[in-house]
Amino acid sequence: MVWLFTSKTPSSSDNSSIASSTLDAMEHARSSAEEMTAAAAATPSSSSLVKLASIPASLMPFLTAAAVFGVSTAAVIFYRTRLRRIPSVAYLTPNMLQGRRVLKGKVTSVGDSDNFRFYHTPGGIWTGWGWLRHVPIGTKELKNQTLHVRLAGVDAPEATSLTDPSSLELAFGDLEQGAHFGMPAQPFSQESLAWLRSQLNGQTVLVKPYTKDRYDRVVSMVWYPRALPFLPKKNANVEVLKVGYAQIYRQAGSEYGGMLQQFEALEAEAKKHKLGIWSQKKVVSAAEHKKQHLRGGG
Predict the structure, then answer these.
(1) Does residue 30 have an active-site annotation?
(2) Which tens digit of pLDDT belongs to each residue from 252-282?
(3) Which of 117, 169, 217, 267 is catalytic?
(4) pTM for this structure?
(5) Quick check: is 158 catalytic?
(6) Which of 180, 151, 138 is nearest to 163 (CA)?
(7) Minimal CA–CA distance to 245: which of 226, 271, 264?
(8) Deepest in the core among 99, 120, 140, 226, taking most CB within 10 A?
């Protein structure tokens, strides 16, 4: 029988030839890859080609106008949302409430145990406050230029408005305090007021507004600096509960900023150690005190 195909074992010379051919092919492939890489680096990308493409002169005025309009609009929005000063509660928009905004400013006076007057200084030192621009100190200059801030979620003892009319800030038209004229003070009201003044008066604070109450006060969370400025700020709402100079405000529409559980733990701890108002045998809330002495109080 005659076989059409025969097999032959490669000789050593054939093996050398094959190995040489394989090495030549690998070297050729490597050289080709290097050439392709160099060519790709030298060829502009699609984005570069777009940049290099010439823009028709007729479109330049429209593109310039669009750019100017965009930059101007962004600047106006940034100013209105971050750099415009809010002189009074009338300037607060719904967008600035519900804990959506944090305001920086200075406490100009503390007229009650759980509220104070706040002068908004947007931008802080970066916009010149404290070295180029200064917070007014006179009653006339401050009139209608401050926000009346109420600590959210807490209720401090009521102070009398008869013995200390200066604390009412009548020059600013505090409606609630005027309505409370002649109401007897609660125990620890003066201690509570003195404590809040010592913590906040004259300080630069952060205020997070949540809502406005019926007296046009801005119900807020408030943070103030510690003795060492590089440490985290203290929360005034937390601290007044911690020292026992206030209790949780539990009337309808109360705002706690998501901190009710923490408030309850702090109040329980103050009760346990009989701090401040909790050292009394019977504690009457400020809301109950007003109901007892004022028609329609609450």
Answers:
(1) no
(2) 889 999 999 999 999 999 999 999 999 999 9
(3) 217
(4) 0.71
(5) yes
(6) 180
(7) 271
(8) 120
